[in-house]
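Extended Data, panel c. Modelled sequence:
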Amino acid sequence: MTPWTPSDAWSLLSPEAAVRVELPRWMHAARAFLNAELSQLDPLGPRAMRLGVSPARAIAKVTVVELRAFTVDEVPAVMSAAHAGVRALGGAGMDALVAKARTVWQVGLAVEGEGDRRAPLVMAAVLATVLLAPVVPPDEVTVFGVRGARLRLEALGWR
């Protein structure tokens, strides 16, 4: 399994070295904070899986997203993007969070068929919430936290 390029995924910088999928905790955060539902679909190995993401009000509209995890050493391009984002912000406290990163979780941008293109960002927001992980977006030179993810989702019409 290879990492996605920074432009092909939402990347989250977790301070935890262990790769733990805590699906019940993730599901709770999705419901409580993002008005979303998660469902486990397929494990793709010890550090990868496919998940279903849907709006809480339309749980039958599941979009499949893929999630992968890597050590920071395995994703130098993501870490370079994170450092560039921190420089663009002038630090703003994100420099300390990026320095503490041990694991990088990536949520691929690609969704199957008619899937909701917002679903990968929803999953990234869930992970940012539960892992206290800053987000490196695929389309901006910045780094942001949960609030930044939620604002972007609201701008895209996710309520």
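The mean pLDDT is 92. This feature is highlighted in the accompanying rendering.
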